[in-house]
Write a structure and sequence with these properties.
- The complex is a heterodimer of chains A (111) and B (121).
- Chain A has 111 residues and is mainly beta.
- Chain A is built from no helices and nine strands.
- In chain A, the strands form two sheets. In chain A, strands 1, 3, 4, 7, 8 and 9 form a six-stranded mixed β-sheet that branches.
- Chain A is globular.
- Chain B is mostly beta strands and 121 residues long.
- Chain B has strands at 3-7, 11-12, 18-25, 34-41, 48-53, 59-61, 69-74, 79-84, 93-101, 108-111, 115-119.
- The relative contact order of chain B is 0.31.
- Classes of the chains: A mainly beta (111), B mainly beta (121).
- At the A-B interface, strand 8 of A face strand 5 and strand 10 of B.
Chain lengths: 111, 121
């Protein structure tokens, strides 16, 4: 059982916007701005898409944005494209240990 | 461009020790700005953090695996390694090595391609 809770799947049509949630606790998401998001295409390694809740690494499209409210972080993808179809994982610093916790992952389907 | 490459046996027998090495090229493993880590992903499942190491040898392990895991670093070869002892079928997974940005966020900004390790007799 993952420490961070994500919906198993979300879907959207090309051009639409979707949001993936990541719910933690006051020991992780709620009290720290150290949330990140990873994109993973089938058979490929994960790719860092968002860090520090809302920052994008160089080269990541500005269609990807992150936010946080209380114990829940969110990843929003606007202008959905076929290439966005992938699994997405959130991650957060946790004060309860010195290691990384991941969410269970969300499969995004572009209809 | 930084590259990480996992290597090691793809098949390990139950109760034996799984051993993998990650070779880093295009950058130094001795940089003070990074840690180096191992993450695994069972087939069809999510990501699991195994542990990480600093070039000085300081290690951090997932408590659920700590009793069976050892991570080491060889700065002369620009490599770090993973050993998991007493493996079972539950250890079957794609194992990734990654670079971790130093700091509380532990962001993994570069990953290896991953290597599938199957535990079976």
């Amino acid at each position: 059982q993952s420490a961070l809770t994500q919906p198993a799947s979300v879907s959207g049509s090309p051009g639409q916007s979707i949001t993936i949630s990541c719910t933690g606790t006051s020991s992780d998401v709620g009290d720290y701005n150290y949330v990140s998001w990873y994109q993973q295409h089938p058979g490929k390694a994960p790719k860092l898409m968002i860090y520090d809740v809302s920052n994008r690494p160089s080269g990541v499209s500005n269609r990807f944005s992150g936010s946080k409210s209380g114990n829940t972080a969110s990843l929003t993808i606007s202008g959905l494209q076929a290439e966005d179809e992938a699994d997405y994982y959130c991650s957060s610093y946790t004060s309860s240990s010195a290691y990384v916790v991941f969410g269970g992952g969300t499969k995004l389907t572009v209809l | 461009q930084l590259q990480l490459q996992e290597s090691g046996p793809g098949l390990v027998k139950p109760s034996e020790t799984l051993s993998l090495t990650c070779t880093v090229s295009g950058g130094s493993i001795s940089s003070s700005s990074y840690y180096w880590g191992w993450i695994r992903q069972p087939p069809g499942k999510g990501l699991e953090w195994i542990g990480s190491i600093y070039y000085s040898g300081s290690t951090y392990y997932n408590p659920s695996l700590k009793s069976r895991v050892t991570i080491s670093v060889d700065t002369s070869k620009n490599q770090f390694s993973l050993k998991v002892s007493s493996v079972t079928a539950a250890d079957t997974a794609v194992y990734y090595c990654a670079r971790i940005l130093s700091g509380p966020g532990n962001y993994l900004d570069y990953w290896g391609q991953g290597t599938l390790v199957t535990v079976s007799s």
